[in-house]
Amino acid sequence: MRNFKIVLQYEGTRYKGWQKQGGTNAGRREDAESSDSSFLETNAKEYTIQGKLERLLSRIAGEPVEIHGSGRTDAGVHAYGQVASFHMDTKLTAEALMEKINSYLPEDIAVISIEEVPDRFHARLGAKGKTYRYRVLNSSVPHIFERRYVWQVPEKLDVQAMCKAASYLEGTHDFKAFTSTKKGKKSTVRTIEAIEIVRCGDEIHFTFRGNGFLFHMVRILMGTLIETGKKNRRPEEMPAILESGLRENAGPLAPACGLALMEVSY
Amino acid sequence: MRNFKIVLQYEGTRYKGWQKQGGTNAGRREDAESSDSSFLETNAKEYTIQGKLERLLSRIAGEPVEIHGSGRTDAGVHAYGQVASFHMDTKLTAEALMEKINSYLPEDIAVISIEEVPDRFHARLGAKGKTYRYRVLNSSVPHIFERRYVWQVPEKLDVQAMCKAASYLEGTHDFKAFTSTKKGKKSTVRTIEAIEIVRCGDEIHFTFRGNGFLFHMVRILMGTLIETGKKNRRPEEMPAILESGLRENAGPLAPACGLALMEVSY
């Protein structure tokens, strides 16, 4: 079996997120539901990106293909550089396979690169780091053309205060207070290498680079940073929030639409 | 009555274009259809931008308000800087009126500036020049996030050849061959001040500046220029096409989605 690594872009607006309904591993629920209807005519709102790709690859291969993403993205979150891998028997060149996949994909998902990789490569297990970008439109005037990709925050925001708050969050910490996951079995310790905050015209871009992020982590970090920017919270509160490990001490969950997975490193 | 000039942005994807169904002047057909349902709950796909704005302004004013755009935009064409004017009795400041309008507008239309102007100002009659931009994505890889705003042309395009063809089209000409209007009563002579063609990464941007453009004119110019870029037509053919005045001698109608009205000058 050949092993392929693909880089994907998608606009998350219409989807229930990356991950297939029914579990982390080759869940059958979503597949079963769609088995009697064309994979090209499904109502995308009910589907996940992983499910959509698996159905498509399985049709091309003529047998079930399992695809592994570098990690989940929530419903509504976008990707400029999601990475996924899958094993498949095919006589097509990698380029021809990419072209074939793209010809079947809806217009809000695209494979932008493909390469054949050694058999042991696994998009999730091999991921070493991830970069997310969150775009805030800091203006009272809506931006018509970018509205699906930004969170509009009309209030004045203190970038300096947000940078200071971010500096407390960088590094290795237990981010339990910054995740929506209830069950406490797995480690919630993660390392954020950097949080960069840059004003670009009427937008503010927040770039998060780290070794991995918990469920909702970037969006809760964003909600907390924006409260700091509005002066409703002091940057110096960050260590106590981390320390507490309590979700209710952190800020609200920022909207999904502002968030995009930019890059995964291996 | 106070007279207001507004600058509008809209994403044309969902709309039947700028102009109200039922004629150039305060047509009643569209208004009548919607009179018994809330203007906030209309199915936008059936509506025009002008119709939507007139219903909204009439509600705010409590009496019929007529709005004049600088000109029509076709179904699916976008605007970064459409200008419109309307007379209205209101005690609101211009800024408060803009805020009120924006609070009722759907998320794909926004007023980005407003000013009170002398009574004689009329957005259509006073317009001296217009700038349109057409975006071509010159790549075989689709651009997920910009797909609503570009025409994807994967074939290799010769920018030099297109620039040469454009130079024949600049100036004052009878553009009868470049319009879809059948009736030949009105003058089809227009002046194109400049056609600028610039490669920006994997996109090519075409900027058209002129004193006015006929129905479908920019899109037929684009269809013709792209044929030249693909080497299916020689730049030197342009004068003969203009001369002929025959629509069938020009190229195909380029898709609406790549086109945007950028600016109107007075």
UniProtKB/TrEMBL annotation, chains A, B:
SUPFAM superfamilies: Pseudouridine synthase (SSF55120). GO terms for molecular function: RNA binding; tRNA pseudouridine(38-40) synthase activity. Residues 19-39 are annotated as: Disordered. Keywords: Isomerase, tRNA processing. It comes from the Bacteria. GO terms for biological process: tRNA pseudouridine synthesis. It catalyses: uridine(38/39/40) in tRNA = pseudouridine(38/39/40) in tRNA. Its EC number is 5.4.99.12. Residues 9-124, 165-266 form the Pseudouridine synthase I TruA alpha/beta domain. The keyword Isomerase applies. The active site is at D74 (nucleophile). Belongs to the tRNA pseudouridine synthase TruA family. NCBIfam families: hisT_truA (TIGR00071). Homodimer. Formation of pseudouridine at positions 38, 39 and 40 in the anticodon stem and loop of transfer RNAs. This is tRNA pseudouridine synthase A.
